[in-house]
Design goal:
The complex is a heterodimer. Chain A is mostly beta strands. Helix content of chain A is 0%, strand content 48%. In chain A, strands 1-9-8-3-4 form a 5-stranded mixed beta sheet, with no helix packed on it. A 4-stranded antiparallel beta sheet of chain A has the order 2-7-6-5, with no helix packed on it. In chain A, a hairpin with a 6-residue loop joins strand 3 and strand 4. The mean pLDDT of chain A is 92. By secondary structure, chain B is mostly beta strands. Chain B is globular and about 35 Å long. The model of chain B has no long low-confidence stretch (mean pLDDT 92). The chains are: A mainly beta, B mainly beta. The A-B interface holds A 31-32, 34, 36, 38, 41-46, 49, 85, 87, 89, 91-102, 104 and B 4, 31, 33, 35, 40-45, 48, 55-56, 90, 92, 94, 97-108.
């Protein structure tokens, strides 16, 4: 199973770009990289997923270097409502996906 | 319309009791899951069903028994509740079992064992 390491917490200010990096040194060839967001008292919500290079959607961007041993979730111009826990998951099947304890992002006014 | 729903939202009970949590999804997904989230926010998979068949059964005490009467429902029954069972339990569903499938989570059931 590909183990992931991400910071426990991060602080940012409104309007800034936030980058959360996840390390997954033993990622396997068929593993995908997926990020989820969880607000207090809610279930996690899918943000973005990628396999290699860069993926962008209306919420975030995901940067994956060529060796795929890490990935960076980029949130442009965060607002107070982006305060949440962000989970990085790596795996090729549902069985392999481990949420871990995530990164608590706190956006300050 | 709620995509993944769970009942009850809160459950407070005494040690030794038996309780059930129900989950329903109206997304037409084939795969459903149960997760446990402890007080440190660590979210761990417990079970997964695909088309009513058990496909993931992690190291969970056999006091926990999932049941899937049809592919839209996955219930969790817990016997002889213990203090350590206190947690938030999330149900989720996805179109299939591959990691590339987005999982849709329910609102969670906060279980408190006294």
């Amino acid at each position: 199973l590909a183990k992931t390491t991400q910071p426990i917490s991060m602080d940012s200010y409104e309007g800034q770009e936030v980058n959360i990096t996840c390390s997954h040194n033993n990622i396997a060839t068929n593993d995908y990289i997926t990020w989820y967001q969880q607000f207090p008292s809610q279930g996690p919500r899918f943000i973005i997923q990628g396999y290699k290079t860069k993926v962008t959607n209306e919420v975030a961007s995901l940067f994956i270097p060529a060796d795929r041993k890490s990935s960076t979730l980029s949130l442009p111009r965060v607002s107070l409502s982006d305060t949440a826990v962000y989970y990085c998951l790596v795996g090729g099947s549902a069985r392999q996906l481990t949420f871990g304890s995530g990164t608590q992002l706190t956006v300050l006014p | 319309d709620t995509a993944v729903s769970q009942t009850p939202k809160y459950l407070v009970t005494q040690m030794g009791n038996d309780k059930s949590i129900k989950c329903e999804q109206n997304l037409g997904h084939d795969t459903m899951y149960w997760y446990k989230q402890d007080s440190k926010k660590f979210l761990k998979i417990m079970f997964s069903y695909n088309n009513k068949e058990l496909i993931i059964n992690e190291t969970v005490p056999n006091r926990f028994s999932p049941k899937s009467p049809d592919k839209a429902h996955l219930n969790l029954h817990i016997n002889s509740l213990e203090l350590g069972d206190s947690a938030v339990y999330f149900c989720a569903s996805s179109p299939g079992t591959g990691a590339y499938n987005e999982q849709f989570f329910g609102p969670g059931t906060r279980l408190t064992v006294l």
